[in-house]
DNA sequence: ATGACAGATCAAATCTGA
């Protein structure tokens, strides 16, 4: 089974790219983030024509997460249990489903904006809720994984230049402790292989030639439990999908499982 | 083998992203 995660930065603007990628990469399950679409405008028919059912948590202009599956959908979830809201609104940042016997969550972790900003505290609270879900579901016989845009670089090597991130979000100790908490719940970072260069970055800013210069970050992550990790045969970042005009600023992370 | 932000929004300037 092939499972992938991709921050698509608007499923509307990216639909031609998405359908093309589905046809070439042939994932069985795809976790999407940053749909930037309303529930009504989600292109469910187009995806169904390609054989994919969708579990959608759409929030309109911002956020949005979905799980696409061509191996069935059981126990769909369109909200993260106990997820905190921001300024009184519970945002569309998670979708879950059991697909072909594997339980997955697609998550779009809050950005945090700046250290000390209320959004930063919101990010940490949101990750605490994610940990609670992980604790309930990880460690069983059924493979379990959380895939998505975590907006955290797990290690210093996961950003192109640490000096550029001094005092910034995505690399702080508290954010990384939240990832460590997921590991405490029995999950492990499924580290993908890069198709080029040494570090498997998954995000490159649109500006300042970041992609050609490989000024990227590894922030799209796959956290799998023991059963999931044991089934992993291969994992890689498909940086080809970041190339050319009309690309998302994130590349898909692809995991092949022996299940 | 890659190119100087992009997307969504009551439509132009602003917000968000990281």
From TrEMBL:
Highest taxon of source: Bacteria
Gene3D superfamilies, alphabetized: Endonuclease/exonuclease/phosphatase
PROSITE patterns for this protein: AP_NUCLEASE_F1_1, AP_NUCLEASE_F1_4
Cofactor: Mg(2+)
UniProtKB keywords: Hydrolase, Magnesium, Metal-binding
InterPro entries according to UniProt: AP_endonuc_1, AP_endonuclease_F1_BS, Endo/exonu/phosph_ase_sf, Endo/exonuclease/phosphatase, ExoIII-like
Presence of keyword Phosphoprotein: no
Protein name from the UniProt record: Exodeoxyribonuclease III
Family assignment from sequence similarity: Belongs to the DNA repair enzymes AP/ExoA family.
Residue ranges annotated for the Endonuclease/exonuclease/phosphatase domain, each copy included: 4-250
Originating organism: Streptomyces axinellae
């Amino acid at each position: 089974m092939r499972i992938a995660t991709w921050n698509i930065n608007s499923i509307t603007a990216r639909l031609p790219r998405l359908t093309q990628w589905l046809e070439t990469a042939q994932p069985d399950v795809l976790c999407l983030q940053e749909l930037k679409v309303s529930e009504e405008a989600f292109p469910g028919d187009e995806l169904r024509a390609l054989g994919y059912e969708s579990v959608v948590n759409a929030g309109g202009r911002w956020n949005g997460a979905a799980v696409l599956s061509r191996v069935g959908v059981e126990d769909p979830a369109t909200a993260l249990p106990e997820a905190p809201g921001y300024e009184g609104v519970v945002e569309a940042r998670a979708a879950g489903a059991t697909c072909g016997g594997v339980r997955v969550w697609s998550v779009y972790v809050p950005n945090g904006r700046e250290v000390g900003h209320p959004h930063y505290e919101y990010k940490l609270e949101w990750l605490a809720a994610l940990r609670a879900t992980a604790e309930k579901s990880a460690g069983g016989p059924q493979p379990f994984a959380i895939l998505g845009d975590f907006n955290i670089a797990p290690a210093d090597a996961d950003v192109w230049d640490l000096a550029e991130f001094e005092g910034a979000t995505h690399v702080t100790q508290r954010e990384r402790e939240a990832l460590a908490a997921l590991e405490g719940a029995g999950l492990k970072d499924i580290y993908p292989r890069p198709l080029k260069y040494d570090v498997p970055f998954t995000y490159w800013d649109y500006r300042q030639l970041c992609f050609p210069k490989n000024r990227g970050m590894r922030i799209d992550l796959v956290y799998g439990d023991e059963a999931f990790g044991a089934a992993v045969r291969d994992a890689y970042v498909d940086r080809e999908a970041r190339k050319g005009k009309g690309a998302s600023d994130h590349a898909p992370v692809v995991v092949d499982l022996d299940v």
